[in-house]
């Protein structure tokens, strides 16, 4: 099965990143979000990231224009009806994804594959919302999508060998490295990463060190390219909380219990870079300073 037309649900940082790499690989993309302002913001982000490539001499202006020309935006799910493959990149909440997959199942032609970019939720449960569970799979891209090579591929109980093979080939077409893992809460990436981030937040919560010191220790001492608190801000603190709740509930161990400080920040609307404030302040001229 050749993927010629890709549908993406969600124009946020993950959705527009997936649209970027797919269009750059020569695939026609339809990117959908709830409101036109979200769609336009996603398209603007793609254009800005492509221009950065032009400025660095990695792309030509013609490459940029051709890639953008392969992407269209919409607020209608019906516009994804004739897509060969659809990737859902909506908010990390199971009820939202179940409703979306039930709707997509009715809209998108029966032979097409439906994938979710979920970073923690059960693929088999999402697949059960459709009448094509054999054509549902997890395709977890890493952030930022245009830069990170990994795609974590997760088969549900009923995912077919054909769906897995098409997904592997599709990821490779986009220049990604697909790695398969089983359908467990958080898969591998976030089952390992989120406890690390959570423990860093506990260190801040308990006054062991300030945010900048915690991040510097992990960068210089463990050779991490980015400190865990900075990374949490980039992921989104609400998303970090959702994933930890999935891990805590799904695996039943206290080591996954979200730090109270994380809950407070999310309740306050301090969600990280996307809101201008998280563990760092992104609203001032010196953006990225400790908040």
Which terms summarize this structure?
10 strands, eight-stranded mixed β-sheet, alpha/beta, 46% helix, two-stranded antiparallel ribbon, 11 helices, 291 residues, N-(1-d-carboxylethyl)-l-norvaline Dehydrogenase, domain 2, 2 domains, globular, Rossmann fold
Structural description of this entry:
Helices cover 46% and strands 15% of the residues. The protein is of the alpha/beta class and 291 residues long. The chain has two domains: 177 residues, NAD(P)-binding Rossmann-like Domain (Rossmann fold, 3-Layer(aba) Sandwich); 102 residues, N-(1-d-carboxylethyl)-l-norvaline Dehydrogenase, domain 2 (Orthogonal Bundle), CATH 1.10.1040.10. It has an eight-stranded mixed beta sheet with strand order 3-2-1-4-5-6-7-8, sandwiched between helices. α5 links the parallel β5 and β6. The radius of gyration is 19 Å and the shape is globular. It starts with a strand and ends with a strand.
Summarize the structure.
By secondary structure, this protein is an alpha/beta fold. Helices cover 46% and strands 15% of the residues. The strands form 2 sheets. The chain has an 8-stranded mixed sheet with strand order 3-2-1-4-5-6-7-8, with helices on both faces. It has a two-stranded antiparallel ribbon with strand order 9-10.
């Amino acid at each position: 099965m050749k993927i010629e037309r890709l549908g993406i649900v969600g124009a946020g940082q993950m959705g527009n990143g997936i649209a970027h790499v797919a269009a750059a690989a020569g695939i026609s993309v339809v990117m959908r979000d709830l409101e036109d302002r979200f769609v336009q913001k996603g398209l603007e982000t793609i254009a800005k990231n492509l221009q950065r490539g032009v400025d660095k001499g990695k792309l030509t202006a013609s490459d940029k224009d051709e890639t953008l020309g392969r992407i269209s935006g919409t607020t209608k799910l019906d516009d994804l009806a004739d897509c060969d493959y659809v990737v859902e990149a909506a908010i990390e909440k199971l009820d939202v994804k179940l409703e979306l997959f039930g709707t997509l199942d009715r809209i998108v032609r029966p032979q097409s594959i439906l994938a979710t970019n979920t970073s923690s939720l059960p693929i088999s449960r999402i697949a059960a919302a459709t009448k094509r569970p054999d054509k549902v799979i997890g395709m977890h891209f890493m952030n930022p999508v245009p830069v990170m090579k990994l795609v974590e591929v997760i088969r549900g109980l009923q995912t077919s060998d054909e769906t897995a093979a098409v997904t592997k080939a599709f990821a490779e077409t986009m220049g990604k490295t697909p790695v398969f893992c089983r359908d467990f809460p958080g898969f591998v990436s976030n089952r390992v990463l989120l406890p690390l981030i959570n423990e860093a937040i506990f260190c801040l919560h308990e006054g062991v060190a300030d945010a900048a010191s915690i991040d510097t220790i992990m960068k210089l001492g463990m050779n991490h390219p980015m400190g865990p608190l900075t990374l949490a801000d980039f992921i989104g603190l609400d998303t970090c909380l959702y994933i930890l709740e999935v891990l805590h509930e799904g695996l039943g161990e206290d080591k996954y219990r979200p730090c109270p400080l994380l809950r407070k920040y999310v309740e306050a609307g301090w969600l990280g870079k996307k809101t201008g404030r998280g563990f760092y302040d992104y609203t001032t001229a010196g953006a990225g300073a400790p908040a």
